[in-house]
Amino acid sequence: MSEPTHIALSHEELAHTLREAMAGAIRDTLNDRELVGEFWKKGFDELSGHTANGASQWLGRRILTWLIAAMTTAGLIWLVKSGAIK
User: Residues 48, 41, 31, 28: what is their CA dihedral angle, to the nearest 10 degrees?
Assistant: First the structure.
């Protein structure tokens, strides 16, 4: 068996090599149209779900607030008409 080869890099050389490797990986990823398309599709689906859920909750809160206000108003009118509140 052969001895493992050890490569000694200075701090600057290591930093440069890592920067180049990361830049290359990012370029490769961005050039993969299928991967980029899937990324944006998943992001759109996720945001659409949150938006629909938020809109539904907003509408539900508005309806509930309206119902509570209507019931309170009806209760007050009934109390005044029945003479409980003078």
Answer: 80
Domain extent listing, the chain: 11-82
Number of H helices, E strands in the chain: 2, 0
9: CB partners within 8 A, 6+ apart: 17
All residues at 6 or more sequence positions from 33 whose CB lies less than 8 Å from its CB, including other chains: none
pLDDT in tens, the chain (86 residues): 567 666 777 888 889 999 999 999 999 999 999 999 999 999 898 888 888 888 888 888 999 999 999 999 999 998 888 888 76
